[in-house]
Amino acid sequence: MHNVKSGEVAMPVLGFGTWQLEGDTARRMTEAALEIGYRHIDTAQIYKNEREVGAGIKASGVARGDVFLTTKVWIERFAQGDLQASVEESLERLGVEQVDLLLLHWPKATPAIEETMEALNEVQARGWTRAIGLSNFPSDQLKKAAALAAAPIATNQVEYHPYLSQKALLAATKDIGASLTAWSPLAQGKIADDAVINEVAKAHGKTAGQVTLRWLVQQDGVVAIPRTQKESRARENFDIFDFELTADEMAKIHALANPKGRLGDWLDPAFKWDAE
User: Is the bond leading into 138 cis (omega within 30 degrees of zero)?
Assistant: First the structure.
């Protein structure tokens, strides 16, 4: 598996996302993903599937040390003391002593970022996570959090796909030595019917999804975490390391970005997205 340097940790550039995977589907697909060859699993407290993801990792037989495991603290648990308690609960549900990466799921105006980062720093100091990071943080909030972090911010996990430019955020993450992790990397299926992407796919004998994931991981410092309920699709998504896109093909896909490309927006009204 190809890795990218994220802060002080090496992070597999392709992960398996578990958003909206519930119950036995989450357990089954986590186990299947590891069987296929994924070594990066992404979950979150709000997904309510940490227990099943942990069971899937255990059932896979893959050594815990070989799996890069990420979870995220939900915004309702950002207060000092409550954040630490929530992480203890996550570890218990996942059945592990430590996660590899712990993210703040969305920026929040209250409590103040100073309080939340102090709690996050303490969690890492206790050894409950190898690395810390953020999710859905615009550049301004990213820089504030990074200045308060006791260790390098490893990644900022945000929506990123061909229809949403993240130029400003990509530059900001590079400035602090972090990676950018793309959620909804396939634009929730919208790329399947895209003429430009399908033309590139035809030239490589690949699918639109494979080309899109290749476009993401071929960018410096970008990680992708596609999610699927189908083992066949998870296998397809993993099969992206035997071809490369040309500079012209990369540029054509970048050119698909548009101002209305954002699919998911739960940002606190106190904050604003970067101008694209």
Answer: no
Q: Which helix (H) or strand (E) holds 164?
A: none
- Of 97, 31, 152, the C-alpha closest to 87 is 97
Please report, for the chain, the start and end positions of each structural domain, with discontinuous segments joined by +: 3-187+219-228
Place of tokens 């997904």: 47
pLDDT tens column, 206-232: 999 999 999 999 999 999 999 999 999
CB-facing half-sphere around the CA of 69: CA atoms within 13 A: 26
For residue 72, what are its two tokens? 């995220």
Question: Catalytic residue at 47?
Answer: yes
- Alpha carbons 252 and 55: distance in angstroms, whole number: 41
Residue 37 DSSP code: T
d(CA 207, CA 226): 14
CATH superfamily ID and name for 3-187+219-228 = NADP-dependent oxidoreductase domain (3.20.20.100)
Q: Is the full-model pTM beyond 0.85?
A: yes
Residue 173 Cα distances to 106, 154, 210, 261, 273, angstroms:
16, 9, 25, 21, 14
Among candidate residues 38, 47, 160, 163, the one labeled active-site is 47
